[in-house]
C-alpha cells in the first residue's frame, strides 16, 4: 500500500490526464475529489488493515459457564475473487478504494470500468505490480456491458457495484442465480434540512458547491432542500446569487431530456423554475433551481445526475422528515443549523450518511464507511467496515482438558439437570437458590448412575 500511495503522489499528473473524460474538471478538482482521497485510503490501510484483519481471540468474559475449557477466536479470511463494477462519475476514487480494500483483505480483484473510464484503473494496475503485487491479482476487464455477465458466469465470489438503482436490480438478479453476495452503492436523491438558526448565506454557498462539484454528477449531491417557510425567500435569493457564478456543464442528452420533462411537470404542479429548463439543442446546462416544490413531485423521487435543486418550504422539521421519507432513496443527507439540534435531527434521518453544516466533503474521510439504504443499495465500502466486507468470517473453537460430559449417552437425570441449569443461569433472584439445589441433586444422581 505504501508503494502504491507513493506512486499515486509522484505520478498525480498522469492520473489527472487519465481523468480527462470527466467534463469541465479542473486539475485541482480531480486531485481533491479523487486522487488525494485515494491516497488517504491507502494510508488508512497501511495503518489499520493488519489489526482489523488479525484473528480476534475471545476471552473468558461473556463465555457461558457450561462452555468451561473452550477457547474461541474469530478469523477474517478473503472471499476469493471480487468483481468491482465502477461508475463514470468518479472513475478513479470509487473503484480504486474498493480495489485496494479487496486486495488488502487478500482477494483477487477484477475491475470492470464504466465505458471510456478504464485509463485510471490501468495505471493503478501498473503501479500495484511495480509496488510488489503478484501478477494476476488485479485485472482490468473490458468496458463493454457484457463483461459483468461474463465474469459472473465464469465465477466470482463477491461483487461490488456503484451505479444506478436500475443497474443494481439487473445485476442483483444475475447474482441471485449464482448465490453470489454483493455490496451495492446505488442512486441517491439527497435531502438537505435547514434548521431555524442556520446561516442562510452559508447554506446557499454549500448548495452551490454541491451543484458545481463534478458537474453535480455526485451520488450525494443535494437535490431536495427542506427549509422553514419563514426562511425560504431568503435562501432562494442567496442561492440564486451563488448559482449565477456556476458555469455551464455538459450533460448527456437523455439526462437533459429527463430533467426537462420532470421540471416542466413540477412547474405544472405549482413549482417555480429559477433558471432555464434545458433544451435539446443545448449540450450544456446551467444550474436549475425549482422553488415551492412539493415532496410528491416526480423530480424529488428520481435519481438525477445534473445540476438541479428543489426548494421545499415546510412548517417544521417533523414535516420535513415526513416529506423526505417519500423518496425511495436514502443515501446521504445534510443538516444545517445549531449543532445540538442538528445532531438530534441527524439521529432521526433515514440515510446511510449525514453531514452537519457541510456537504459531501466529510464523507471522504477514509475512516468512515459509506453506503445507502432502501433503493440506494446495501452494504458499505470504505473504512474498517468496508474492509471487513471484503472478508468472510470463520470461527475456531478449541476445547482444553479431557472432560466431555456431552459425549455421554443421555440419562434420566439429564432433564432435571438441564432445567435446573437454565434457571440457575437465567432465572430471577427468587429462583436461583432452588435451582442450585436441584442442579446439585441432579449432578449427584448423574454421578451415581
Report on the structure:
- This protein is α/β, with parallel strands linked by helices and 449 residues long.
- Helix content is 42%, strand content 20%.
- It has 3 domains: 2-186 and 383-394, Aldehyde Dehydrogenase, Chain A, domain 1 (3-Layer(aba) Sandwich); 190-363, Aldehyde Dehydrogenase, Chain A, domain 2 (3-Layer(aba) Sandwich); 407-448.
- The protein has 15 helices and 20 strands.
- Helix 1 crosses helix 5 (119-130), helix 6 (146-154) packs parallel to helix 7 and helix 14 runs antiparallel to helix 15.
- The mean pLDDT is 94.
- Belongs to the aldehyde dehydrogenase family.
- Residues 4-396 form the Aldehyde dehydrogenase domain.
Produce a short descriptive summary:
The protein is 42% helix and 20% strand. With 449 residues, it is of the alpha/beta class. The strands form five sheets. Strands 11-13-14-9-8-16-17 form a seven-stranded mixed β-sheet, with helices on both faces. Strands 5-4-3-6-7-19 form a six-stranded mixed β-sheet, with helices on both faces.
Amino acid at each position: 500500500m505504501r508503494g502504491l500511495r507513493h506512486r499515486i503522489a509522484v505520478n498525480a499528473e498522469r492520473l489527472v490526464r487519465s481523468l480527462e473524460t470527466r467534463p469541465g474538471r479542473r486539475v485541482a478538482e480531480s486531485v481533491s475529489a479523487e486522487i488525494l482521497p485515494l491516497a488517504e485510503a491507502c494510508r488508512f490501510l497501511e495503518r489499520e488493515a493488519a489489526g482489523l484483519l488479525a484473528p480476534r481471540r475471545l476471552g473468558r468474559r461473556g463465555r457461558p459457564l457450561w462452555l468451561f475449557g473452550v477457547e474461541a477466536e474469530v478469523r477474517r479470511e478473503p472471499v476469493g475473487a471480487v468483481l468491482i463494477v465502477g461508475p463514470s462519475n468518479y472513475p478513479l476514487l470509487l473503484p480504486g478504494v474498493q480495489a485496494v480494500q479487496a486486495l488488502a483483505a487478500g482477494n483477487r480483484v477484477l475491475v470492470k470500468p464504466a465505458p471510456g473510464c478504464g485509463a485510471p484503473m490501468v495505471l493503478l494496475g501498473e503501479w500495484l505490480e511495480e509496488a510488489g503485487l503478484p501478477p494476476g491479482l488485479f485485472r482490468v476487464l473490458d468496458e463493454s456491458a457484457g463483461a459483468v455477465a461474463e465474469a459472473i458466469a465464469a465465477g466470482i465470489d463477491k461483487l461490488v457495484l456503484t451505479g444506478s438503482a436500475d443497474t443494481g436490480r439487473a445485476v442483483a438478479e444475475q447474482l441471485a442465480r449464482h448465490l453470489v453476495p454483493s455490496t451495492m452503492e446505488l442512486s441517491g436523491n439527497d435531502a438537505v434540512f435547514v434548521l431555524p438558526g442556520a446561516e442562510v448565506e452559508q447554506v446557499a454557498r454549500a448548495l452551490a458547491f454541491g451543484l458545481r462539484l463534478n458537474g453535480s454528477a455526485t451520488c450525494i449531491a443535494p437535490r431536495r432542500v427542506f427549509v422553514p417557510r419563514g426562511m425560504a425567500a431568503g435562501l432562494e435569493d442567496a442561492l440564486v446569487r451563488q448559482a449565477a457564478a456556476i458555469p455551464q456543464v455538459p450533460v448527456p442528452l437523455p439526462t437533459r431530456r429527463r430533467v426537462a420533462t420532470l421540471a416542466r411537470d413540477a412547474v405544472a404542479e405549482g413549482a417555480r423554475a429559477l433558471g432555464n429548463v434545458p433544451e435539446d439543442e443545448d449540450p450544456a446546462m446551467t444550474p436549475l433551481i425549482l422553488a415551492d416544490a412539493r415532496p410528491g413531485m416526480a423530480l424529488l423521487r428520481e435519481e438525477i445526475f445534473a445540476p438541479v435543486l428543489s426548494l421545499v418550504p415546510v412548517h417544521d422539521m417533523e414535516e420535513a422528515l415526513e416529506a423526505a421519507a417519500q423518496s425511495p432513496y436514502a443515501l446521504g443527507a445534510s443538516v444545517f443549523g445549531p449543532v445540538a439540534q442538528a445532531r438530534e435531527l441527524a439521529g432521526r434521518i433515514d440515510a446511510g450518511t449525514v453531514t452537519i453544516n457541510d456537504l459531501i466533503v466529510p464523507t471522504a474521510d477514509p475512516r468512515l464507511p459509506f453506503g445507502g439504504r432502501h433503493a440506494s443499495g446495501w452494504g458499505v465500502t470504505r473504512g474498517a467496515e468496508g474492509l471487513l466486507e471484503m472478508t468472510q468470517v470463520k470461527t475456531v473453537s478449541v476445547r482444553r482438558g479431557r472432560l466431555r460430559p456431552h459425549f455421554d449417552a443421555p440419562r434420566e437425570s439429564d432433564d432435571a439437570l438441564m432445567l435446573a441449569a437454565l434457571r440457575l443461569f437465567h432465572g430471577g433472584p427468587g429462583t436461583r437458590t432452588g435451582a442450585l439445589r436441584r442442579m446439585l441433586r441432579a449432578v449427584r444422581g448423574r454421578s451415581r448412575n
